[in-house]
Design a protein that fits this description.
The complex is a heterodimer of chains A (407) and B (101). Chain A has 407 residues and is an alpha/beta fold. Chain A contains 15 helices and 15 strands. In chain A, strand 11 and strand 12 form a beta hairpin. Chain B is mostly helical. Chain B has five helices and no strands. Classes of the chains: A alpha/beta (407), B mainly alpha (101).
Chain lengths: 407, 101
């Protein structure tokens, strides 16, 4: 038996798709031209799939800070946070993020995935209970495999389902940690966080919120869903990423938990990987300043969300349940989704796909990620192109436009 | 070999009486939840290996277990789901968890 034989089924599906054309998981950007444009296969396309929510990946302030840092301190730290890889800039960024959230402590990780993996798997251990939303990101599921805690799953965004599980655990002595996300990346829906916080308080559970897709987008100071819902003070741990609104790479965790410092001595995905290079730390610090000083970035993001969400809804598409920086177009099958995705790429628009088993309830999705940097004409162009593709492929049976025209 | 179970109409959940619930009731409900995943007309029995004998992926198994949890007011941790292979094992796990309530 060959070493990779167990993946034969997966590879077969992939190769069948590959012979029919481009496949989403193997797209190469030949060149990035701006936060919203790239060259793919020699052709210029508008990118509406990158999670560059505030368009900061090309912000001059961030680029210049990164250039200055790489000149001053070199290309990499060549060390981990516990062995010669903690520079004063890493600690300055940690202080700035902690201050931004009004929390006592912050830990910076090399990726957002590692932040979830490390923090969640280290916070709970043998005898504890990790209670996760059914639609949690892969990093949360992977954290559940890295811990000795008992793993319990509740129905997505369903307070009654969480409550039933905490009620059944009420007499168990271990700690309970509930993990939810601010905005879910597949359908762009937000968590009913106030209800979750109330239930956690009632049953003495800790709550962690992953604000990867909501930091930069939600809340008066763009700190995420917890701020928007007015419950930031009730959240025990916030996890976030540098690779979305902040336009770089990396992850963080902020908290007021006493003895938080212990995590730096035991969290393996923090300890045993190279720390972020000085250039990344510098660009993230600059980006965080921009988020604080330019609330208009967030306003522009939401203007663009409304343009895309209402435009696609008016064109007859079934979308995620609420307008959000992730706008998911729900199609009927994985095959139809790949076809539409390829046709859209040919028309000059790159979006992401979400296919089973990565999607809830086996849904097939074209996932658009809106940026403050998109122009109105880019988004309207996408709406027109997608409508055209959908009509050609017969993906919209009864367009609301057609119904309106008939009335 | 356990006898083949009566196939219950998938669309009509049977009301559960928590006081008189038997192992057979639990197993009948599991089979009802698994009906949509049957391989052709093959009957689902206690010895059916859920992930092999049925057209069901790991995510759908976790979702089905979540439905059973609510139905029987028990919690089956994912760690335990990973050790369950057959319908009989799932039945026994739920019956045991109900006793611990």
């Amino acid at each position: 038996m060959g070493l990779l034989d167990r993946h034969a089924g997966l590879l077969e599906v992939y190769r069948a798709n590959r012979t029919a054309g481009q496949v989403p998981v193997r797209i190469t950007m030949d060149k990035m031209l701006s936060p919203t444009e790239a060259v793919i296969d020699g052709r210029r396309v508008v990118t509406v799939g990158t999670h560059n929510y505030l368009g900061l990946s090309f912000a001059p302030e961030c680029v210049e800070a990164a250039v200055a840092a790489v000149r001053a301190e070199g290309t990499g730290t060549c060390g981990s946070r516990i062995a010669n890889g903690s520079f004063s800039e890493h600690e300055a960024l940690e202080r700035e993020i902690a201050d931004y959230y009004g929390m006592n402590e912050c830990m910076v990780f090399s990726t957002g995935y590692q932040a979830n993996l490390g923090i969640i798997s280290t916070l709970v251990g043998e005898g504890d209970y990790l209670v996760i939303d059914a639609d949690s990101h892969a990093s949360i599921y992977d954290a559940s495999k890295q811990t000795q805690a008992t793993i319990i799953r509740f129905k997505h965004n369903d307070p009654a389902s969480l409550e039933a599980r905490l009620r059944r655990l009420a007499k168990e002595p271990g700690n309970k940690l509930v993990v939810v996300e601010g905005i879910y990346s597949m359908l762009g829906d937000t968590a009913p966080l106030r209800e979750f916080v109330d239930i956690c308080k009632r049953y003495g559970a800790y709550i962690l919120v992953d604000e990867a897709h909501s930091m930069g987008a939600l809340g008066e100071h763009a700190r995420g869903l917890a701020e928007a819902m007015g419950v930031l003070d009730d959240i025990d741990i916030v996890v976030g990423t540098f690779s979305k609104a902040l336009g770089a790479v990396g992850g963080y965790c902020v908290s007021n938990l006493p003895d938080f410092e212990a995590l730096r001595l035991t969290c393996r995905p923090y300890m045993f990987t190279a720390s972020l290079p000085p250039s990344t730390i510098a660009s993230v610090r600059a980006a965080l300043k921009l988020i604080v000083t330019r609330p208009q970035l967030r306003e522009r993001l939401w203007d663009n969300v409304r343009i895309l969400y209402s435009g696609l809804a008016a064109a007859g598409f079934r979308l995620g349940p609420e307008p959000s920086p992730v706008v998911a177009v729900r199609l009927r099958s994985p095959e139809a989704t790949i076809h539409a995705w390829r046709a859209l790429l040919n028309a000059g628009y790159y979006v992401n796909v979400g296919l089973p088993p990565a999607t809830p309830n086996g849904e097939s999705l074209l996932r658009c990620a809106v940026s403050a940097a998109h122009s109105r004409s880019q988004l309207e162009g996408l709406i027109d192109a997608l409508s055209d593709v959908a009509h050609r492929l017969g993906l919209i049976e009864h367009s609301r436009l057609q119904i309106a025209a008939a009335e | 070999m356990p006898a083949a179970l009566r196939i219950v109409d998938a669309a009509a959940p049977v009301a559960i009486d928590h006081d008189t619930l038997t192992r057979a009731d639990v197993q009948a409900e599991i089979c009802r939840q698994l009906l949509p995943f049957r391989n052709g007309q093959a009957q689902i029995t206690g010895s059916t290996v859920i992930s092999k004998d049925l057209q069901i992926d790991s995510l759908a198994i976790m979702d089905m277990v979540m439905e059973l949890e609510d139905r029987f007011d028990v919690t089956v941790p994912l760690n335990r789901v990973a050790e369950i292979h057959t319908v009989d094992e799932l039945t026994d796990a739920i019956v045991a968890l109900r006793k611990d309530r």
